[in-house]
Amino acid sequence: MSTTDDAQALLARLTDDGGPAGTWSAPGRANLIGEHTDYNDGFALPFAIDRRTVAAVHVRDDARIRVASTFADGDPVEIAIADLDELFATDPAARDLPAWAGYPLGVAWALQRSAAVTPVGVDIALASDVPVGSGLSSSAAIEGAVASALNDVWRAGLSPVRLAQVGRLAENEAVGAPTGIMDQMASFLGEEDAAILLDCRTLDARPTPLGFAAAGLQVVVIDTRVEHAHSTGGYADRRAACERGATALGVEALRDVGVADLPRAAELLDEVTFRRVRHVVTENQRVLDTVAVLAEHGPRAIGDLLTASHVSLRDDFEVSCPELDVAVEAALAAGAIGARMTGGGFGGCAIALVEASGAAAVEDAAIRAFAASGFTPPRVFAVHPSAGAHPDRSSLIDSVEP
Ligand code: ADP
Ligand code: MG
């Protein structure tokens, strides 16, 4: 069964009056390069992947919203739309709400805060083939699917960029995870065989052709199955270090610091803060270099930049973990052109850019290296740069009276 079938089947289980009126979907993403740069107003180069979260939606004749997900055994959560404000005014820890439901309900709440809407009651059934909690942004995928659906059903009329901001607002304020906007932008703006050069200060997003397929290359994901935890973990600590660095250097954000400024930063900052700053500054430069190298020399030439990004994340930013390091080393030893952790770190996935003909060897090498280290076997699979969020069937839009 496809993910769309799963979402529709769950919706049919929730409601007995007719089938789904429409389905919307949004992808997860892999970040090719540009990690921990988004909340520093910097650059990133993510691409949407060919794994998606699907929202099957049914309009109700009352003003309530009900959400269910195959991820949570299909158990529904229901609330009056008018009560969303009060729900999300409560501290996340004190809410009587399963954590996952904060994402779709948070999007409903954030959309109402961001646009004039016609908030008719809805049932939303969710299914996904994006690995959850692995750093491929199942969170942006669920936000994207729900935001696209409600944007149409509630006639909010927001652009993809505005919807990405709705997703981020939901994740930051409703869920309480202090993430940047990269994931949502990639999920909304992704294109076939292209990455998105994202300027996180201006939200300018430029499709950047990758040409992987034409060059006979593939991106292999090695999912370490070590779950990262964004809202706890070291993420907040790294953000704080970046803010500290920017303040000490007298800039609005680390985006405003160039590689040439690093010697001065070394004098002004304590050793740890300096290394955090150096990662962000050099990573921003690597993103721009990657775009230039892609255009001038093609995708086979970007490998060293990817691997340098990993080394910087491992040694300067210290957000890697033994499993990610083993994945990267095994992939490189098996012939990958470049490899790095992707996503926030502390677990999750590594990506390797490989010759399509050598993908199986990289997979074998990763599995053997994990076994030799006594780690849980990784999940290894290819991802292809793909299209962003969109309606899969739009019959519902026509059937809803404004
Ligand atoms: P990532 O985005 O890397 O997958 P996050 O911790 O940011 O990891 O987001 C994962 C969380 O998002 C899950 O724990 C769950 O609460 C929510 N989530 C993601 N996908 C779904 C889904 N299909 N159904 C319900 N909740 C989901
Ligand atoms: Mg996430």
Automatic annotation (TrEMBL):
The record marks 29 as: Transition state stabilizer. Mg(2+) binds at residues 139, 171. Its main location: cytoplasm. Pathway: Carbohydrate metabolism; galactose metabolism. PROSITE patterns: GALACTOKINASE (PS00106), GHMP_KINASES_ATP (PS00627). Keywords: ATP-binding, Carbohydrate metabolism, Cytoplasm, Galactose metabolism, Kinase, Magnesium, Metal-binding, Nucleotide-binding, Transferase. The active site is at residue 183. Its EC number is 2.7.1.6. Pfam families: GalKase_gal_bdg, GHMP_kinases_C, GHMP_kinases_N. GO terms for biological process: galactose metabolic process. It catalyses: alpha-D-galactose + ATP = alpha-D-galactose 1-phosphate + ADP + H(+). It comes from the Bacteria. Residues 21-57 form the Galactokinase N-terminal domain. It is found in: Cytoplasm. The keyword Iron does not apply. Residues 103-190 form the GHMP kinase N-terminal domain. ATP binds at residues 69, 133-139. Residues 294-370 form the GHMP kinase C-terminal domain. GO terms for molecular function: ATP binding; galactokinase activity; magnesium ion binding. The keyword Transmembrane helix does not apply. Substrate binds at residues 35-38, 235. Catalyzes the transfer of the gamma-phosphate of ATP to D-galactose to form alpha-D-galactose-1-phosphate (Gal-1-P). PANTHER family: GALACTOKINASE-RELATED, MEVALONATE KINASE/GALACTOKINASE. Belongs to the GHMP kinase family. GalK subfamily. This is Galactokinase. It comes from Microbacterium mangrovi.
